[in-house]
Design brief:
Blueprint: E1 6-9, E2 12-19, E3 22-30, E4 42-49, E5 54-59, E6 61-62, E7 67-75, E8 79-87, E9 90-98, E10 109-110, E11 114-116, H1 118-121, H2 128-131, E12 143-151, E13 158-165, H3 172-182, E14 192-198, E15 207-214, E16 221-230, E17 236-245
Parallel strand pairs: 1-9
Antiparallel strand pairs: 2-3, 3-7, 4-5, 4-8, 6-7, 8-9, 10-12, 11-12, 12-15, 13-14, 13-16, 16-17
Length: 250
């Protein structure tokens, strides 16, 4: 059998954020082929809930860089996301689990970090969706932005943060340059950066945190950034995002 279309595994980034008792899903994916025009390209994100087979479909907009972006407001549940982009004689798809951030009994928790184009994210008023990188492959980038959200804390509550490099690829230069970007110093030889700050709550009750991460002279390979936050009462939440340097990033 000869397939009519060429199929591609999409590079993408999807974030599931809490907004009260609902979820905000943001998804950005890079078009798998170079095109002079996006007029014939169609993109969408389908969110499926396995518990009752509910499917929610939202259209994605394609920006001038060739990234498809979509957002969805959903009920709090376990979902499967399917990012779909179709062009003439080709189809791109990324299908994966989209779990909401885990909260403890008091509602405390942390979102998965979102990797951002720091040049866009630093501009005032730019929506988070527009700043999201459409891939977790970062060839050619030495600086990235990272957004994470803390849930279930009080306004001005002192929070203790850790930013560490974990097992996928461990390189001492990573945390050294992160510390430089944050104007902090590692307090031990355990390859970690720590700092404290008060929680700044938005009207939604979310405490967002944006960091600029300097990648320095890291070699190509797979890495993982892990963020941990500790409350004044000792409760700890953590979340991680893997990324790749080299091999086809933008």
């Amino acid at each position: 059998m000869i397939a009519r279309e060429t199929w591609h595994d999409l590079e993408h980034q999807t974030a599931v954020l809490r907004r009260g008792d609902r979820l905000l899903v943001l998804s950005a994916a890079r078009l798998p082929v170079l095109l002079p025009s996006f007029d014939s390209v169609r993109a969408a994100v389908a969110m499926g809930r396995p518990s009752d087979l509910t499917v929610e479909v939202v259209a994605a907009q394609i920006d001038r860089t060739g990234a498809a972006r979509a957002s969805a407001d959903l009920e709090d549940a376990e979902w499967i996301a399917s990012v779909e982009i179709t062009g003439e004689d080709w189809v791109g798809r990324a299908r994966h689990g989209a779990r909401p951030p885990e909260l403890d009994e008091g509602g405390f928790g942390l979102s998965t970090p979102v990797l951002l184009d720091e040049r866009i994210a630093q501009q005032e008023g730019v929506p988070l969706l527009d700043a999201m990188l459409p891939s977790t492959t970062l060839a050619g980038r030495r600086r990235i932005g990272m957004h994470v959200e803390v849930y279930g804390v009080a306004a001005n509550e002192r929070l203790r943060f850790r930013l560490i490099a974990d097992a996928v690829r461990l390189d001492r230069s990573l945390l050294g340059t992160v510390a430089t970007a944050l104007r902090l110093r590692s307090r031990s030889s355990s390859l970690e950066v720590r700092w404290e700050e008060p929680a700044e709550l938005q009207e939604s009750g979310v405490a967002p945190r944006y960091l600029t991460v300097e990648l320095g002279d890291l070699e190509d390979g797979d890495y993982e950034l892990v963020v941990q936050v500790e409350r004044e009462n000792g409760a700890v939440a953590s979340a991680a995002r893997r990324f790749r340097l080299g091999r086809g990033g933008q």
